[in-house]
């Protein structure tokens, strides 16, 4: 694992643009209906943010990539819904997910404009609320007035914990007997945490007879 992480850090150092592109795509795809329900965008952003303290990536670039991807993803989904209205909710692939569509509509009707803000932090609804807001006729200016502040809060909330954790480990890790670079401990923890979370979500869905993002049975 240590040699793999060393190789990864070396690769990112030489190809920082690719890491920023990955961050951008991770944030963008999280906002795409259906696709965003399964893409581990938050985990990718958190893991790559661990490379900021060592200088492989720059904090402004990481934040900018995450913000730009989220804005493009949410904005595109909203405008697709805005132009198609409710018709988009009953066409493929959205028609295959009636349960999560119903949840998104209920979430939006309950919270109104605030649903756009809260949805940024609630997967898998995050991937469906922007298109739902557009299809239900939310004015564009009202959408962006809520969505942009939400993204500006969401991005630091995903990036800064990784940066802070690595900084603290690099500074105080020796006190706990953690020699070497903190990345050797942080990235395995992120990967392990992602696997545990995925297993927990899968288990909950199985116990409840299927998850919110499962397609409707024919």
Description:
This protein is mostly helical. Helix content is 68%, strand content 0%. It contains 9 helices and no strands. The radius of gyration is 19 Å and the shape is elongated. 37% of the residues are buried.
Brief description of this entry?
This protein is mostly helical and 218 residues long.
Keywords:
218 residues; mainly alpha; elongated
How are the secondary structure elements laid out?
Blueprint: H1 2-14, H2 16-30, H3 41-49, H4 59-84, H5 98-111, H6 113-119, H7 129-135, H8 140-172, H9 183-207
Mean pLDDT: 76
Q: What shape does the CA trace take?
A: elongated
**Low-confidence region ranges:** 208-218
**Quantity of strands, as a count:** 0
Beta fraction of the residues?
Answer: under 5%
Query: Helix content range of the residues, please?
Result: 55-70%
Distance between the termini: 44 Å
| Radius of gyration of CA atoms, rounded to a whole number | 19 Å
Helix count from the secondary structure assignment: 9
Q: How would you classify the helix and strand content by structural class?
A: mainly alpha
The largest pleated sheet is described as:
none
Q: Please write the string of helix (H) and strand (E) elements.
A: HHHHHHHHH
């Amino acid at each position: 694992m240590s040699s793999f992480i060393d190789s990864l850090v070396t690769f990112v150092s030489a190809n920082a643009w690719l890491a920023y592109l990955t961050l951008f795509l991770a944030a963008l795809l999280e906002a795409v209906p259906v696709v965003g329900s399964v893409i581990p965008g938050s985990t990718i952003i958190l893991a790559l943010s661990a490379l900021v303290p060592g200088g492989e990536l720059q904090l402004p670039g990481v934040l900018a990539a995450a913000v730009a991807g989220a804005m493009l993803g949410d904005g595109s989904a909203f405008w697709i819904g805005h132009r198609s209205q409710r018709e988009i909710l009953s066409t493929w692939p959205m028609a295959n997910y009636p349960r999560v569509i119903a949840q998104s509509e209920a979430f939006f009707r309950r919270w109104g404009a605030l649903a756009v803000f809260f949805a940024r932090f609630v997967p898998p609804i995050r991937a469906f609320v922007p298109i739902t807001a557009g299809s239900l006729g939310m004015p564009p200016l009202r959408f962006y007035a809520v969505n942009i502040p939400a993204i500006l809060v969401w991005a630091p909330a995903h990036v800064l914990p990784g940066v802070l954790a690595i900084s603290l480990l690099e500074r105080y890790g020796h006190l706990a007997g953690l020699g070497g670079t903190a990345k050797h401990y942080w990235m395995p923890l992120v990967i392990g945490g992602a696997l545990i979370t995925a297993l927990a979500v899968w288990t909950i869905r199985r116990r409840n007879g299927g998850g919110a993002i499962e397609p409707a049975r024919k």
